Amino acid sequence: MQAVVIREVGAFELADLPVPEPGAGEALIRVSVTGLCRTDLKIVRHGHRDLTLPRVPGEEVVGEIVSLGPEGAEAARPAGAAGPAAASGATTTAEPASFAPGDRVYVYPGVWCGECPSCRRGAENLCRQMRIMGFHRDGGFAEYVAAPLQSLIRVPDGLGDEEAVFAEPLSCCLNALELGGVGEGDVLGVWGAGPAGTLLSRAGSLRGAEVVVVEPDEQRRAFLTATPGAPPQVSAHELPPGPVDVAVVAVGDPRAYEAAIAALAPRGRLVVFSGLLPADDAALHVSLSAVHYHEHTFVGAYGCSFRHGVDALDLLATGRLRVDDLISHRLPLAALDEGLDLVARRAGMKVHLYPERGTP
Ligand SMILES: [Zn+2]
Fold first, then answer.
1. How far, in Å, from the CA of 76 to the mean position of ligand 1?
2. β-pair partners for 249
3. How many beta carbons lie within 10 A of that of residue 145, not counting itself?
4. For residue 113, how far is its CA from the centre of ligand 1 (angstroms)?
5. Which CATH number applies to 181-300: 1.10.540.10, 3.40.630.30, 3.40.718.10, 3.40.50.720?
6. Rounded to the nearest 10 degrees, how much is the dihedral formed by the CA atoms of 316, 318, 319, 324?
7. How far is the CA of 108 from the centre of ligand 1 (A)?
8. 146 pLDDT exceeds 90?
9. Residue 244 has pLDDT above 80, yes or no
10. How, if at all, do strands 264-272 and 297-300 pair?
11. pTM
12. Domain over 2-170+304-354 is classified CATH 3.90.180.10
C-alpha cells in the first residue's frame, strides 16, 4: 500500500509498505479520508513530544472496516471511556464486539489502559500508557490502518466520511470548551479563525456562549461570519472588543497568548489549547501577580477523550454543527507537502487527504 513515512524529523517519503495485519482485538480499516492539521505540520517538520520513529503519521481517520483480527469479537473496551459515552445517550456508541467488515468507522486516535487515575476520571487522553495513532503507532496517511476495536466509533448513517473526519478536531475543541467551563452567559474569546478556531466558535455558541473571535486576517474574519449556517452569536474582530470570561487560544503564537491573558475578565479562564514551539514557549511572559489579583484560571487542553468523539459525531450527524463549508482543499496522499505548505501559510481552511484505494 501507499503510505507516508517519517524516518527522521523534518522529512518524509511516500513508500510502498505492506498492508498492516490487524492483531487480536484490532480491525483493518481502508482509509477513505484523513484530515491534515497543524499538529501534522509540527510532527513532520519539527517533531513532537509524543512522536516515535519511524512512523506513518495521520491522526484524523475515517474509513471502512475490511477485516477483523483474530479474537476480534472478544475484545472489550477498557473502563473509563464507555461509561460517560453511554451516559450521554448518544446513538453513536457501538460495542466493540458489534463491528464487522463493511462498517464505516471513525478512529479515536488513542489507545488507553482504562485503569490508571486519568483513565478512571474520564481523561484517557492523559493515560500513562496512552498510545496515539500517528504518534506512537502508525496512522492514517496510508491506504490502510490497523486500529483497536476499542478505539472505533461507528459513523452514523447519513453522515458523510468527509464530515465525520471532523470528529477528531471537533473532539479536541469539545474537550477545551469543557475544561474552560464554557456555558450560558459567558463571553468566549477564541484566538484564531482557522479550522480549529472556527470549530471552537461554533461549538462554543452551542454551549450558550457569546463568542468573539480575534483574527488579524480580514479574509478569515469575513469567512467566519459570512458563511451560511454560521451561528449568529459569533462575531469576528481584529482586536478583542472587551473582556472575555473564557479565552481559548487556537493559534501557536505567544503574542496571541499574551493578548488573550490581557483580555481576561476577573475570574476569567484561559484554555491553553494550541501548543507552542519551544522557543516561543520560552519567550512568553506571564505575570502571576495578575493571575493572583484577578483570580484567573489557566487550564491546559491536549487532545480529547473517547466520549468527545461520540459527542462530536452526534453534533455532526444531527446537523447542529456544520463543517462541510470548512473543507478548502482535497488532495491525494502524494501531495502532502503541498498540504503542509497550505497549513503553514494558513492559506486555506481544512485540508483533507484521500489515500488511493487498493486491495489488501
Ligand atoms: Zn490509563
1. 15
2. 191
3. 30
4. 4
5. 3.40.50.720
6. 40
7. 15
8. yes
9. yes
10. parallel
11. 0.91
12. yes
